[in-house]
Design goal:
This protein has helices at residues 2-7, 56-76, 82-85, 123-140, 158-171, 177-188, 191-194, 196-202, 242-253, 271-285, 291-295, 297-318, 330-360, and strands at 16-21, 29-35, 43-48, 89-90, 99-100, 105-110, 209-211, 220-222, 228-231, 238-240. It is α+β, with helices and mostly antiparallel strands. The structure holds 2-acetamido-2-deoxy-1-O-phosphono-alpha-D-glucopyranose and magnesium ion (MG). Magnesium ion binds at residues 25, 219, 233.
Length: 361
């Protein structure tokens, strides 16, 4: 009933039948609004986590600009089925892109018909996703006007994330440090290595472009046949490195296990996924990537897996204040799982580099 009340503030054109929980995101709460008429679209309703997204107006404005721009690009290319290849924001009855109920912020988009998300995909899907992802970045490369605002300042800034881990260690708020001390030591010993991208940026050698900054495989929609439709969850799309996005895809789609797998033996980097994603991505992004960006693609898998490891670890040490958890030691398990994946990527780095070289020949 309460959700229906919230939904009633939006300019929905179809009668609601029911509202159910949707997806596995760790930050916002997401629901699917089902509608009565079989041919009418459903909607996606989200409660935005305002502890994390402090400036909802800025975020919604970013998303509006991004989706308009992409729609325009697809139109120029005479693509069909545009409603399924971009997100459509449904405004409130007062014409705003979000609704504030006095306590929470809400927003609605159209639920893309016959679309699916996956936690794991085949190499063939990975190839198509790589192509589509290069295009997403290419489309956004000429977004005009003011640069997009940072919805979360320093979101993928490695020195900042390491600093947050150090603060968590310093505070040791819930006495969990002793349990993770050896992991902490290992991670901090790689600090310099992992700050490479920020260093190159400062030296003017690595550009920031517009990056999605959350290219988990479950943030992509596919149709029934596995054709890529679009990238969703545009909350963190902002100026950043292409490495963020390539790396996060490898971290999620390229993991033979789960992000929080309880059986660490399930975890390793799936080289077929890496290879096919890289092949597709380079195919469509080669035109605008610099040689240094291309050469760092294998490193980006390490970089993003390391970053996720320290973020889960810091949250564990802080007493689980950021990510939704399903059981008390969940962030600990996530840390172990991500660390295991990092070791596997380390072991395959040379093979990855060789593959990238071979693609350029
Ligand atoms: C969060 O919202 P979701 O679940 O797609 C997080 C990402 C992490 C990811 C780890 C705003 O993404 O940065 O990589 O969890 N989003 C935010 O699964 O922190
Ligand atoms: Mg998501």
């Amino acid at each position: 009933m309460e959700l229906k009340e919230i939904a009633s503030h939006f300019a929905l054109t179809n009668e609601i039948s029911e509202i159910e929980s949707l997806g596995t995101g760790l930050i916002n709460d997401t629901y699917r609004i089902k509608t009565v008429a079989p041919d009418a679209p459903d909607y996606v309703l989200q409660r935005i986590n305002q502890n994390i997204f402090k400036d909802v107006a800025l975020m919604q404005n970013n998303i509006q600009r991004i989706t308009n721009h992409i729609r325009h690009k697809l139109q120029e290319r005479n693509e069909n089925d545009l409603e399924r290849k971009t997100l459509t924001i449904i405004p409130t009855k007062n014409g705003k892109s979000y609704y504030y109920d006095g306590e929470n912020y809400w927003r609605v988009t159209i639920f893309i018909k016959d679309s699916k998300t996956y936690e794991q995909i085949t190499p063939e899907f990975a190839h198509l996703t790589g192509i589509a992802f290069g295009e997403f970045q290419y489309f956004l490369s000429d977004l005009s006007g003011e640069p997009l605002g940072a919805t979360i300042p320093d979101f993928h800034n490695m020195p900042f994330r390491i600093q947050q881990l150090k603060e968590a260690i310093q505070n040791n708020a819930v006495n969990r440090l002793a349990k993770v001390q050896s992991i902490v030591n290992e991670l901090l010993s790689r600090e310099e290595e992992m700050c490479l991208a920020e260093r190159l940026y400062k030296e003017g050698k690595l550009p920031k472009r517009i990056a999605h900054c959350d290219t988990k495989v479950n943030n992509m929609l596919f149709d029934k046949d596995g054709n890529f439709l679009c990238v969703i969850d545009l909350d963190t799309t902002m100026p950043g490195f292409v490495l963020s996005d390539f790396g996060d895809f490898i971290r999620t789609a390229g993991n033979t296990g789960e992000e929080d797998d309880k059986n660490l033996n399930n975890i390793s980097v799936n080289m077929d996924i890496f290879k096919e994603f890289a092949r597709g991505y380079i195919q469509s992004a080669k035109a605008f990537l610099t040689p240094i960006e291309i050469s760092l693609l294998p490193f980006s898998g390490q970089m993003m897996t390391y970053m996720q490891t320290i973020r889960f670890l810091a949250d564990y040490i802080n007493g689980d204040t950021y990510y939704k958890i399903k059981y008390p030691e969940h962030n600990y398990q996530r840390t172990l799982a991500q660390l295991t994946l990092l070791h596997s990527i380390d072991a395959h780095l040379e093979e990855m580099n060789q593959w990238i070289d071979s693609l350029l020949k």
